[in-house]
Amino acid sequence: xxxxxxxxxxxxxxxxxxxxxxxxxxxxxxxxxxxxxxxxxxxxxxxxxxxxxxxxxxxxxxxxxxxxxxxxxxxxxxxxxxxxxxxxxxxxxxxxxxxxxxxxxxxxxxxxxxxxxxxxxxxxxxxxxxxxxxxxxxxxxxxxxxxxxxxxxxxxxxxxxxxxxxxxxxxxxxxxxxxxxxxxxxxxxxxxxxxxxxxxxxxxxxxxxxxxxxxxxxxxxxxxxxxxxxxxxxxxxxxxxxxxxxxxxxxxxxxxxxxxxxxxxxxxxxxxxxxxxxxxxxxxxxxxxxxxxxxxxxxxxxxxxxxxxxxxxxxxxxxxxxxxxxxxxxxxxxxxxxxxxxxxxxxxxxxxxxxxxxxxxxxxxxxxxxxxxxxxxxxxxxxxxxxxxxxxxxxxxxxxxxxxxxx
Length: 407
Ligand code: SF4
Ligand code: SF4
Description:
Elements: E1 5-11, H1 17-27, E2 39-44, H2 60-71, E3 77-82, H3 91-98, H4 101-108, E4 111-114, E5 120-124, E6 133-137, H5 139-142, E7 145-149, E8 151-155, E9 159-161, H6 163-166, H7 173-182, H8 186-200, E10 204-214, E11 222-232, H9 235-245, H10 254-261, E12 272-276, H11 279-282, H12 300-308, E13 314-317, H13 327-331, E14 337-338, E15 350-351, H14 361-365, E16 371-374, H15 377-383, H16 386-405
Parallel strand pairs: 1-12, 2-3, 2-7, 3-4, 7-10, 8-10
Antiparallel strand pairs: 1-11, 5-6, 8-9, 10-11, 13-16, 14-15
Helix pairs in contact: 1-2, 2-4, 8-10
One iron/sulfur cluster binds at residues 317, 322-328, 349, 366, 368, 370-371.
C-alpha cells in the first residue's frame, strides 16, 4: 500500500459543488473514517461579517455539501464552529449570519456555535515550538471527528491561508490578539500556528477552492473563481499543493515549514500522491499580497529589533472608506489604534507607530477595507540605529584592513 499523503483535486462542474465534494472525499476513501453515532465538529473559515460572494469565509455551498456527506453516516451530533478574528463578543454570531452559514445550519438542523460560547479548555502543546499551551474549546477533545473546511486565499502576513492557518480560528477571540502580540515576528507567529494545529489537529480536510481571494487577502483581496475542491488528511501536503496550484513556492510559506518541522505532514512532492485532476490541469497564478512582513530564522531579539525598525509598516486609513466602526481600535492587540477626537465623517482613527507590532489584524478585520500598509525601508533604516551601527562596523573593518595592508 502507498505510504504517500493523498491529496484529491476535483473540479466543480456546472456549479455542482456537492458532487465535487463527494467525489473528492471518495478519491481519498474518507468514508473509512466514519462510523454511526459520532460527534462531528466542522471548522469552516468564518473570519468576519462578509457575504459569500466576497470569498472571505468558507462558501455555504461547500459547508452544506460536507454536512450532506456526513449525514450519510448517521452522526449523533454535528457542530459548525469558529471564532471570528475580533476580540469583541458577539462578532462571531454576526459573521456566522452574514456569511450565510448560520441559516444553512438552521436548515440542516445542525448546531452553529461560536467556539467562545462552548466550554473552555487549556491544552498543553506537544513538542512546542512557540506556545506551551493554548486556550480553546472542549469540543476539540469531545469531537470524534474534526473536519477542517478552509478557504484558499492569499494572506498579507502569512502569504497563504488555507489548512494550517484556518485552525488559528480555534483560538478564542481575545486570545488571538494575545498570540499575535506574543509572537509578533512572522517566524514566531508561524511556529505558533504549527503549535495550534498540533492541538486542534483535524482528522480530515475539505478545501473550499470554489471562490478564492488573491492579492490583498484574506479579506481585501480580489475574488477568483477557481471552481475547485481539494480533500486530504495531511495539511502540509494539502497547503503545498495549493501553493503549486496558485504559483507560490511552498518554501515561502513559513508556517508550512514549521508544521513540517513538527512532523505534521510533508512538503516533499515525491511523498504526495495527487488524485483526480493534476496541478497543471488547474494551475492559475495568484497575485501575491503587496507587502510581506520580515521573516528570517534569527534569534528572537534580533528578529524583534529588525521587525520593529527596518520592516516597520505605516498604517494608512482611507477617510473615504472608513466608517469609524471601531473594529480596528477595539481589536488591535497592541492598543496602537485609538478613535479620533470626534466621531464624524472624514475623520480617521489615530495610529501609534511606537506601539504597533505590525500584526496586520487591522487590515484583516476592517469590514470596509479602509486600512492599508506602506513600508518605507529607506526612511526606517535611516531613523533606526541599525544602519549607523552597520556603517560603523564596515568602516571599522575597512580601516583595520587598510592598516594591516600597510605592513
Ligand atoms: S479603519 Fe476600518 S475598522 Fe477602523 S474604524 Fe475605520 S472602518 Fe472601522
Ligand atoms: S495598528 Fe494594526 S498592525 Fe499595528 S498592532 Fe494594531 S492591529 Fe496590528
